[in-house]
Amino acid sequence: MKKFSHKNISKIGKYKIKIPKRFDKKLANRLFRFMLRLRICELYLEKEYHPADQMKCPVHFCVGEEAIPAVLNELLIEEDFLFSHHRSHGYYLAKNAPMKKLFAELYGKSSGANSGIAGSMDLSYTKKNFFAGAILSGAASIAIGAALSLSLKPKSKAIAVTGFGDGATEEGLFWETINYAGLKKLPILFICENNNYSTYAPQSKRQAGMSIAERVRSFGVDSKQVFGNDVFIVYQELKKAITKARKSRTPFLLEAFTYRQSSHVGPPNDEKVKYKSKKEIKFWKKNCPVALSERVLLMKNFLKKTDINVIKSEIKKEIKSCFDYAKNSEYPSLNSWDDLNLSHNSPLADKLLLDLDKTDFDIEQQTEVSKGF
Length: 373
Fold this sequence. Notes:
The chain is α/β, with parallel strands linked by helices and about 375 residues long. It is built from 13 helices and 9 strands.
């Protein structure tokens, strides 16, 4: 398929996934394990969210969109910056941030990744250079600042990576970011997880003309489209893009077509809104990244059913310990709401922001104004 769209992808029927020749067996198994871990993590969080109502924030789950984070987990280095959209859990785990601190953050506990005060949509973990944000396209614009900083370090091989959905490309801020990346030739990788929907509206009802991948080329940003549920193709394409970004320090956009099986927000099923057809849902569940990779790994004898059962058992044990950690942690203690936004312990800022001596300021000084004003 030369040009991808959700309309022509749906005509595939059963996607024929293949493991590329000479693809490392251990790597293939690691990719699958990451996706399965993320899938089970999200399903257990969905199940626990209600009726207990102990989680203290809205959550956007990423069931069906596991391939991109799995690949990033393999290809990113410690120094790379990763910026995520509001569907943040996969990207958080991609940077090897601790799962137990993710759980604690959702429960609003002090042991959470952000001390229980950011929640899922604004999840961050600075030790791993990971940041998420609720503002549509905001993560991309912040990522461009990180990329600019990295471009000023000649010896650095680190890059900035930002993930977002197709809806983010309808923001003016996104195109300003793309334009600046192309203009300055910055080391940044843009990953558009095109899952077709912005809340309940399909892409065909919101966007006309060229694809997202084609449009960014007008700004000097190279790009490519892939079927985002084939983790092996995604790995090959992202490896090429990241290798090039490290070497040539130039931007690239990958438009990966995928699908969220989760509702737009929270665990309650939103199919009652009837914005998705039963045929569409059936197609994407059958061709989700976890199901596709499991099928081919078994077929190639990379894994056996007993191996998968052992992996699932290990993951479920880890998840139980994460729930225990979160539920047994304490809530944060704050003296005032101001403490969330203002630090009183800021000696450097205090030094830099000292009032100027008024005797140094000449209120009568002459000013020059350019002609024409």
